[in-house]
Design brief:
A hairpin with a 3-residue loop joins strand 1 and strand 2. The N and C termini lie close together (about 10 Å). The protein has 4 helices and 2 strands, in the order αααββα. The chain has one domain. By secondary structure, the chain is mainly alpha-helical. The chain is elongated, with a radius of gyration of 18 Å. A two-stranded antiparallel ribbon has the order 1-2.
């Protein structure tokens, strides 16, 4: 299997980016779930939110690298399907990328507006680019949690359901194209 994409298949790098994104998304969600279940301000509460933020920065970095890789490769020719389905698939993929960027960026912005550092795995802090504005931090937090997250979840569930429909109902081997 080639590292790069061809017009017939996704390359191993694109597949790795896809599945690493899945793994990181799950890790980000587990970290925030553990944070929300912990006693407020306990060591576990703090540990898990710091982990959530570090994983979010990692996700942002991965998605930016993935977009850079995507822009330097051909995209495999889509499987045969009606034009409307192709446009829908393209729209959903674009929206997934937008949300995969919006979630970590809004998390970083929210944290900095609240006057806190974004520390990455205890190794370094992101540069503080924003002045403290706790009211705006609350608004960004609302978008992060109440808009971006549910829309991202909806898109991911839709992505999985449609992929499963293609694989198991239409039997067009769509999923096989992205398997390692």
């Amino acid at each position: 299997m080639s590292l790069r994409n061809s017009t017939k298949a996704w390359g191993s790098a694109a597949k790795a980016f896809h599945w690493l994104t899945v793994v990181l998304l799950i890790a980000v969600w587990v970290a925030v779930a553990l944070h929300e279940d912990a006693v407020k301000d306990s060591p576990e509460y703090i540990k898990y939110i710091l982990l959530h933020k570090s994983l979010g920065v990692s996700l942002l970095t991965l998605v930016l690298a993935r977009l850079l890789w995507l822009s330097s490769n051909v995209t495999p020719t889509p499987i045969k399907m009606p034009e409307l389905q192709k446009k829908a698939a393209s729209t959903v993929h674009h929206l997934l990328y937008v949300l995969l960027l919006a979630m970590p960026i809004s998390g970083i912005v929210m944290t900095q507006l609240a006057g806190r550092q974004v520390n990455v795995f205890g190794l370094f802090d992101l540069p503080q680019l924003l002045d403290v504005n706790k009211e705006l931090a609350k608004e960004v937090k609302e978008y992060h949690e109440e808009v971006f997250f549910p829309v991202l979840m909806l898109l991911i569930v839709g992505h999985i359901v449609v992929a499963a429909f293609h694989q198991f109902v239409l039997k067009d081997n769509l999923i096989k194209r992205m398997l390692p």
